[in-house]
Amino acid sequence: MPSLNRRSVLGAAAALAATSRARASTWRPTRPMRVIVPAPAGGITDIGGRIVAAQLQAAWGQPVVVDNRAGGGGIIGTTEFLRAAPDGETLLVGNIGPQAIAYTLFRELPYAPTAFAPVSGLIRGPNVLVLHPSVPATTLPEFIALLRSRPGALNYGSSGIGQSPHLSGVWFLQLLGATATHVPFRGSAPALTDLLGGNIQFMFENLIAASQHVQAGRLRALGVTSAERSPLFPDLPALRELAPELASYDVSTWVGLFAHSNAPAEAVAACNAEIRKALAQPDNASRLAQTGSQAHVTTVEQFGDFVSRETAKWRDVIRREGLVMELT
């Protein structure tokens, strides 16, 4: 048997990659495509779906329909997607809820991570920690000291149990070894209203939604939840910069594109290539910036690794907190 040297191995790998790219470049849908968005029209997940649909329709000339199937925290639309043929011509625009958090949060979820083939990242954006001005803390170290000195005394709001803003707070408190009282609301708007009224003391909120109140002095921002600062507000630090206990803290709401696990690999690769083109377009970058988000450009493999890490991270946070919800 002939020996293998490094050059021959690299050559074989390059040939395999070239073959994969060639197959991706020749794949085309054979009929109109459907992009299922498990969220209402107008939100960040829907924006991701519209970007996908516009790009794929322009690239391949087939109509691409965005099908909003909201409800159940994204589970209804996700389940509908899995009923479609696994041919790569029906895609799912998923997000952090149904495609990472739900696996641990919900009892008897009707699908598993293995049901999906990650295709591409689409959007990422941080939450921001904001306080009511009456809270006697102007820096994160002061706020941490206040939380520790008054266990459970401060109230924090969120858009609902198990939502990203709630779990931002859960993980934050876990890492600090501190406690506070969670007050869930039906959506972020009523939670923000109660924070502005001083009925709760702090919350983790969408960066853009909170920014106008911060700039007007109605709220005090301490930092963003992402690993890095937001390019939209570069003077606002990442929370992990400000406390050693938060060195691992990294929370972004995110949206990504998925196919069925049995979809052709060529279809997955072709869709990824088109989405990377879409996310490089300045008008899409500007559209995302208006929501406080950024394009999340990935290869298929990078996005698969990202989703796996997100699923594992929230599994650990949810289990430590003892959160379990029933599907309704």
From TrEMBL:
Pfam families: TctC (PF03401). It comes from Belnapia mucosa. InterPro entries: BUG (IPR005064), Bug_dom1 (IPR042100), TAT_signal (IPR006311). CDD domains: PBP2_Bug_TTT (cd07012). This is Tripartite tricarboxylate transporter substrate binding protein. PANTHER family: BLR1237 PROTEIN, TRICARBOXYLATE-BINDING PROTEIN. It comes from the Bacteria. SUPFAM superfamilies: Periplasmic binding protein-like II. Belongs to the UPF0065 (bug) family. Signal peptide: none annotated.
